[in-house]
Structures are given as C-alpha cells and as structure tokens.
Amino acid sequence: MATLTKRVAEMIKLDFIASGQCSQGESLPTVRELARQYSTSLSTVSQALGLLRQEGVVDTVQGSRTVVTAPDAQGPPPRYETVTLVIPWHLDTELSMRVFKGVGRGCTQRGWRLLLRCGDWTYGTERSLVREAVDGGCVAVVLLPVLRRLEEIRCDYLVREFGGFPVALVDLAFPEQGHMQVVFDNRRAGYDITRELLLRGHKRIGFMRDVRLQKALPLRSNDERYVGYLRAMREAGLDPDPELIWDIGAFDLSKTMSERTRRVEQMLHGWRESPSRPTVIIALDDFWAHIICAEARAMGVRVPQDLDIAGFDNLAIGDSVRPGLLTTDPDFEGAGEIAVGLVAEQLTGDLRPPVTYVLPVPVVCKRSQRSADSPVTADAPPSTVPAAANEAAESD
C-alpha cells in the first residue's frame, strides 16, 4: 500500500497537472494551501513535492515557488478508490457535518475519494442509495442509518443484500444489523448526566421519551440513556416515577414543528399544574432543550430557577439556553474517521465484521448551571464534568 506521502503526491499530480489546471511553467498552490486542501501536515506536502521533483514533474524556482515542468504528468492519472457516505437529508445538520468531516479526513489519509449521497428519512430510500453506491463501484459505504421499525431491524437489507460488502454504520445502529459499527456509550451518558444533576441537589429529575413510538420505531440512543437514567436514580434511592417521564412524541415524522412545539407547551402546562413536578428535565437533545426553554419562558417560567434543563449532543443551539446547559459531547467527527478505518481494515483482511467500536461520551457544561439550592453563575467557562469514579452504568 502506498505511503501517505506518495498518495499526496499522486493527488497533487492528478488535481493540478493531469487535469490541466496548472500548465507548464505555472505555479502550484503554496505548501500551506496544499496541506489545508489535503488535510495533512506541511512536512508531508513538502516530501510529496520532493517526490514530484524527482520525477521531473515540478521544480522549485526563486527559492520557494513550485512550478510545473511536465504538463502531461508522465502518463494517465491514477485510479482512486471511492467511499460513499449515505445520510438522511434532514438529519441534524450539525451532527452530520461532524461525521462528514471525519469521514473526509479518513478518506484523505488513505488517498480515497469521498462521495456524499443524501435521501429522505425512509428505510426504502436508504436502501436504494446504498444499492446505487455499491453498483457504482465504491469500495465501501459509511452509513448514518435512518430509524427502523422492529421488523426491519430483525430482517435488515444490510444483512440480506450486503452481508459481505464493507459497510460501517455510525450512531443509530443495532447489533442485528451486523457490519462494522461505531456507536456511543449512551447508557453511560444517561447515567453520568443524571448523576451530575443529583450531585447538584436535584431529586425530581424528569426524562423526555417517546414511549409510544419507541415500541414501533425504536431510538436506541434514547433507550440506552433512559437505562442509565434509571440506574442513577435507583442508586440514589429514588424509585422511578411515571410523572417524571415526558412522553413527547418528538420522532413522529408526520408531525410538523409547530405540532411538536405545541406538545412541549402541553407538557409544560401539565408540569405547572403538578404538585410533584420535576425540578429539571433531561431533554432528547440540545435542540429539544432549546424548545423547552423557549416555551417555558413564553409561559413565564424561569429557567433555571423554576425549571432546569439538560440535553445531549453539545449542539450550537444549546447556547441559547440561559444561563447555560448541561449536555454531552459525543465525538461524531472522530466516529466518522474511525468508521473509515474499520472498513479499511476489512478491505485488507485485518478485521472481519461484525465489529462494534464504542466511543465514550463526556458530560460537559457550556456554562455553569445552578444546583437546586445555589445561585446561577452565568459567566463560568465551559468545562468537562468528570464521570463518577468507579461507578458502573450497566443495565440491571
């Protein structure tokens, strides 16, 4: 397999010389610009240009400028392997962009091209996009799976139709789907964020779920966070209370955003009327934490004095939850890069699927939130909340 330096040299030759973008006598971009384009180091680019000088393709003039000396690049351009990234088109843009960056970095390190395919949030469309990618000649697929119904999980097309093809699933994956998987330790994340809220003095901790939809269209991340939440509550001597569960119906894809917002408003009215209401709500993610915060304030509820809010995924929109937000920080960019590494090892025969890579999920604080009995400190810097030492978050 070619070294990184050789692959960068071949990409420079293909992109700037064989393509005709730079003619004989014209300058290539600077070393810094090339390093940025190929997501590599300055030293790697310098070594790659040294290889091209040895081939007589380029030369250095006036001390630093690299110019093309052989416009035909000495033969036909090399063949590059392609990896296809398949994502639902309306998947959270911020998270999907993190995965895209990681997959792109992993492909660049191996001299692979990256093709992005997007479709709607349906099982059938995802299946068609994967089929088109495989038929189009890509060497591997990295997939952010759509939500699946139980019967689709049990008899997934990924196993039936692409069992031997290199596929890596990121995040919303189930063991039944096989293949390479990069997932997050959401059980531990639910446990740690609940523990942190308990340490801050909260006892009535609410948790947002979609109880009805989970039975037909399971969301693994929410399920696992809920297991961690229950574990932490039980360890604190607090029995699960149905009144603490907010059944939001947020993942019913037939609902409009206004309908979902009205559902949050209904939940807040119920919260206000409850004599044993929670002091904090753990939302589905930071996006829903933002909606709860906005609707609560519109109703005259003080956040966090009357109702505190926590979320997941460290989304930028969580910054609007004042005076801060307790959240998690999953490394989606790293997950994308690891996914490429897994399929690369499958292609070389070093790994055989199924292999599941579980990433930790640290709890972070965008700004310091109050505990149940302490004042708000709005100007505290972001920080990482350490996981409780020697605590197990496994399911009972």
Brief summary of the model shown:
The radius of gyration is 25 Å and the shape is elongated. Helix content is 40%, strand content 16%.
Provide key terms for this protein.
single chain, 396 residues, alpha/beta, Arc Repressor Mutant, subunit A, Rossmann fold, 3 domains, six-stranded parallel β-sheet, four-stranded parallel β-sheet, 13 helices, 16% strand, elongated, disordered C terminus
Q: Mind sketching the topology for me?
A:
Elements: H1 4-18, H2 31-37, H3 42-55, E1 58-61, E2 65-68, E3 82-88, H4 93-110, E4 113-119, H5 123-135, E5 140-143, H6 150-154, H7 157-162, E6 167-170, E7 180-184, H8 186-199, E8 205-209, H9 211-214, H10 220-235, E9 245-247, H11 257-273, E10 280-282, H12 286-298, E11 308-310, E12 326-328, H13 332-348, E13 355-359, E14 363-365, E15 383-385
Parallel strand pairs: 3-4, 3-5, 5-6, 6-7, 7-13, 8-9, 8-10, 10-11
Antiparallel strand pairs: 1-2, 12-14, 14-15
Descriptive account of the structure:
The radius of gyration is 25 Å and the shape is elongated. The longest helix is centred in the N-terminal third of the chain and has 18 residues, at 93-110. Helix content is 40%, strand content 16%. It contains 13 helices and 15 strands. It has helices spanning 4-18, 31-37, 42-55, 93-110, 123-135, 150-154, 157-162, 186-199, 211-214, 220-235, 257-273, 286-298, 332-348; strands at 58-61, 65-68, 82-88, 113-119, 140-143, 167-170, 180-184, 205-209, 245-247, 280-282, 308-310, 326-328, 355-359, 363-365, 383-385. Residues 73-79 and 368-396 have low confidence and may be disordered. Strand 1 (58-61) and strand 2 form a beta hairpin. It has three domains: 4-68, Winged helix-like DNA-binding domain superfamily/Winged helix DNA-binding domain (Arc Repressor Mutant, subunit A, Orthogonal Bundle), CATH 1.10.10.10; 82-183 and 332-359, Rossmann fold, CATH 3.40.50; 186-330 and 361-385, Response regulator (Rossmann fold).
